[in-house]
Amino acid sequence: MPDAPSTTPRKELSAPQKAMHKLGLVRDIDLALHLPLRYEDETRIVALHDARDGEVVQVEGTVTKQDIQYRPRRQLLVTLDDGSDTCTLRFFSFYPSHQKTLAVGARVRVRGEVRGGFMGKTMMHPAFHAAGGELPEALTPVYPTSAQLPQAYLRKAVVSGLKRADLSETLPQPVLTSLEDTLRGLRAPLMSLRQALEYLHHPGPDVSLAALEDRSHPAWQRLKAEELLAQQLSQLQAKRERDALRAPPLHTSAGGLHEQLLGVLPFALTAAQRRVGEEIARDLQRQVPMHRLLQGDVGSGKTVVAALAAAIAIDSGWQCALMAPTEILAEQHFAKLIGWLEPLLEPLGKRVAWLTGSQKKKQRTEMLALIASGEAALVVGTHAVIQDQVQFKNLALAIIDEQHRFGVAQRLALRSKMGGPELGAGEPHLLMMSATPIPRTLAMSYYADLDVSTIDELPPGRTPIVTKVVSDSRRHEVIERIRAQVAEGRQVYWVCPLIEESEAIDLSNATATHAELSQLLPGVLVGLLHSRMPVAEKKAVMSLFSGGHMGVLVSTTVIEVGVDVPNASLMVIEHAERFGLSQLHQLRGRVGRGAAASACVLLYTPNEGGRLGETARERLKAMAETNDGFEIARRDLEIRGPGEFLGARQSGAPLLRFADLATDTHLLEWAREAAAQMLVRFPEAAERHVGRWLGTKAEYLKA
Ligand code: ADP
Ligand code: MG
Questions:
Q1: 607: alpha, beta or left, given left = phi > 0 and alpha = psi -120 to 50?
Q2: What is the Rg, in whole angstroms, of the alpha carbon atoms belonging to the chain?
Q3: How far is the CA of 84 from the centre of ligand 1 (A)?
Q4: What number does the ligand 1 atom closest to the CA of 273 have?
Q5: For residue 396, what pLDDT band results from cuts at 50, 70 and 90?
Q6: Which of 389, 442, 576, 627 is the most exposed place for a label (fewest CB within 10 A)?
Q7: Whose CA is nearest to atom 20 of ligand 1?
Q8: Which domains does the chain have, with CATH numbers?
Q9: Which ligand 1 atom is the nearest neighbour of the CA of 589?
Q10: Percent helix, strand, coil in the chain (nearest 5)?
């Protein structure tokens, strides 16, 4: 049978069109918002005599000589004379067309960097074309582009995109007025979006390139304000949509699980734990699903807060699920929590169910039945918890530990597929926990639809960890120190780096260190832990270590988060220069959990020059200078910038292209207020604004 003819003729895109699509340049507005990386000044012709060494200039003159030389390499040499001076143009790669345009006697316009030099002025590989033609009145924009998309093609596309795009005002008058006030504080007059864009694409020749480069020019300010407003609006919209959802209200009851748990805890809660506990309890009482991030430094005691929240859900007759990113973490991290809750659940005829990837089928089937019947009041596990076969009877609270380790897709899955028949169309409350605190500006900008609770105090009696940055050449001293710690009955972690693209190297690194330490520390049990080991073996090693039988644990970064062994007092991190700042901080947080004075040794391996790279040095310095996770996060943000700090994967939000959260706080504050006002008073304008700026991305933002 012949193929049915296609009803819609397929329009083939040309190569540059495809390249534009790849860059996200689809709509006119996308092109209008595609701003130059830098500008070239082709508005003036300079006399060669006046051109300074190193200056990029445009000159016009007559070719007086053309020559091909073969020493030291084949090259085309052209002498240009503009009447004021001469200049040698030098091309190492050239075509017959070069020779033709640059023939002796031809008048040409040339643009490039002038070099002074002993033999007179020269330009390497200048741009050139036949002289004549009008000089442009504006600077020439140079756009970010790709190999398949020629600059000239893109320039034309931007010009027509800019002409056609609807750039009419979306900001209502009161919002414009408040923007004008904010900008006045920044000494920038208000420009319209069209003015701002036209200016940035084609700035006049008398512009301050400095103001364009540091993005302080009024045109930039307008653009940044617009972008931040769009981002805040879309986040507020997402929050509103969430607020329209329903969740079961959860209450504590007199003499209930929550109260009992408080009674059996071996310590008193810190003031900060009490405060965040109340914030969560208030959310749980509402009929709107909680969407809260609990952040607190490593060791600040988030687990007990999670346990108390779980107790409230169970008190109200609902189920609670707890998820950790890996099996070993789930086990380690929730051991205490289960230790507290299980004895209290038993008299109620309730149980704790485990769900992990490595479970035997029989055990898993058993667990699934407990979950479906509701007998399991608490479900603990890894991603296995959000898999399809899992049917809750009535899940009302989901708690995700180390939430930054889960991707957006997993968080979405959690929200959409949890619940259970008794929940109906409702959604469970969601509590996310993180030990990587988000600096305030970042939270304001990226988590506007998330409520944040912060534990800003450590439990009492902790001795601060002393951090030392030590070169690998002093490794033997470090090993001596381990010997001394173990002799005192203390335990030691030794962490080797994880290099993602090469698990093999990792492993050899960790196994070599394991062999070395075993040999140098006779009589000490030295264990090895890495991600390729079977789960059972991992668990066995971990239980030897947490039981205090193993003196030293050599591991790759599998212990990064969550592990709690208070007797461990020394953490050695090998190749510390390869780790990120927040990762180093997380690792360090594995010690200093008991009363003993703890230390962290950051072993670095200098490069051939005996030195460390700039950012590595900054990271290690920050680690040695502070133990405060918030300060670390602030510096991490400073070193890496928000894009890398958040990682698009975990934020789920398109990162800002124009605004910079480190410097644009005033605009961000304005955008927050303006967004709230616009959504209430000018919903149509708000819609238009978000559509213009985010287009199809807006949906993604709601994830
Ligand atoms: P994290 O916030 O890193 O998850 P954990 O919840 O693992 O921290 O708590 C770290 C350690 O502090 C645990 O051993 C925990 O039992 C203990 N802890 C938690 N709260 C308190 C408190 N208020 N007083 C004393 N110890 C506490
Ligand atoms: Mg924890």
A1: beta
A2: 32
A3: 78
A4: 23
A5: very high
A6: 389
A7: 301
A8: 39-142 (2.40.50.140), 257-455 (3.40.50.300), 465-626 (3.40.50.300)
A9: 3
A10: 45, 15, 40
